[in-house]
Amino acid sequence: MSRRPRETKNGKKQIKYFDYTLLFIIIFLVGFGLVMLYSTSSYNAQLKFGDSAFYLKKQLSASLLGFAGMLVVANIDYHIWLRLSSLFYLAALALCTAVIFAGSTLNGSTRWLKIGPLSFQPSEMAKMAVILFLAAIINKIPKQMGRFATVVKVMCIVLPVVGVVAYSNLSTAIIIMGIAICLIFVASPKYVQFLVMGGIVVVFGGIFIMLESYRLDRLKIWLNPEAYEKGYQTLQGLYAIGSGGLFGKGLGESMQKLGFLPEAQNDMIFSIICEELGLFGAICVILLFLLMIWRFLVIANNAPDLFGALIVVGIMAHIAIQVMLNIAVVTNTIPNTGVTLPFISYGGTSVAILLTEMGLALSVSRGIKLEMV
After folding, report:
1. How many CB atoms are closer than 10 A to CB 25?
2. Closest by CA position to 269, among listed 233, 226, 317, 222
3. What SS3 string covers 140-178?
4. Alpha carbon of 33 to those of 55, 58, 236: distances in Å?
């Protein structure tokens, strides 16, 4: 986890730290994700495109791009993002707004921008932009974060991007709002104000859901999936989980991926993990994410400054919220929200941006210095 020590003025040896444990977890999760993606998508890819490795090739390309971004960002001093965070936030807001007017539609959702042969989801960039932007703002006014007025002002700063993203992608807007709340919660010494804000968010969230009939339909489907045609995906996912048993049917042996579970390689891939690897495999995946969150906590607690700590807390919140939402949706604990499982679900923009975020966490870990007698 550390590099070669060097002597300091007081005679102590100073070790430059690097979190190799986190790096190993990242590599393992991406590798596992590619294996599960091929297992889950090969049948569907062969039928649609005549190439069983179609989804694997695209995900592998995005993963390699993400690893390149991670390597570059990990070797850049993270303090540079203090000056660039505002520009990054405005660029993300502009791109998310462009989706409303010039976005591409896929599977009934308008979430992509096409530039030539490339397409990407700006909402994924918005998550990282909000982390950096809020970390930079809170870093400038840490002593004022105890005031309720300051907390409201900081929350209002992210509302434009939350509103724009929510127009076409409510689930991502929820994640962005969750990241913002976690960052402010960590920076604020007072907790009562969050109960007030939580009530406000719930009220406005309820109003926002009622504005569109399809969102109310999702609530009805969640409560009684057997009674609705759109509850088919949820039911097939639950069948996959139930049929896996303790140790699963074996890698590649899923039945539900053979046309029964629609778009299994996307949001519902955790159900195929449960079917093929069983409860044991599902618990191992959850434990890996918990281990990753623990490494984020270690880095945040030992970060050289508040800005670095806030960046890592934001990344930790992003991963934790997204994993919990995905597993909750797959198990029908909450209504279907269309959230991917980090590093494992199919999605080029998602995996590339996530790996770049990991580069930020590793960059902060490089700034940690340990002293030995």
Report:
1. 19
2. 233
3. HCHHHHHCHHHHHHHHHHHHHHHHHHHHHCHHHHHHHHH
4. 12, 13, 21
pLDDT band of 210, cuts 50, 70, 90: low
Q: Beta strand pairing status for 118-120 and 369-372?
A: unpaired
Question: What is the pLDDT averaged over residues 308-313?
Answer: 96
Averaged pLDDT, 86-114? 82
- 48, 180, 301, 308, 313 from 294: Cα distances, Å: 40, 20, 11, 16, 11
**What is each CA distance from 315 to 128, 131, 353, in whole angstroms?**
8, 7, 11
The model's pTM is 0.91
320-323-329 Cα angle (round to 5): 135
Contact predicate 95/169, CB 8 Å = no
Q: Is a pLDDT exceeding 90 seen at residue 277? A: yes
**Residue entry with tokens 């993203």:** 165
Q: For strand 2-7 and strand 13-17, is the pairing parallel, antiparallel, or unpaired?
A: antiparallel
∠ Cα 21 137 70 (to 5°)? 30
CB count, 10 Å around CB of 229? Answer: 7
The mean pLDDT of 62-66, rounded to a whole number, is 96
pLDDT over 70 for what percent of the chain?
Answer: 88
Sheet holding 13-17, edge to edge: 2-7, 13-17, 369-372
DSSP assignment string, 93-156: HHHHHHHHHHPEEETTEEEEEEETTEEE-HHHHHHHHHHHHHHHHHHH-GGGGGSHHHHHHHHH
pLDDT above 90: residue 132: yes
Alpha helix ranges (H) inside 231-268: 232-244
Fill in the DSSP letter of residue 245: T
Mean pLDDT of the chain: 87
User: The dihedral of CA 70, 75, 81, 84: what is its sign?
Assistant: negative
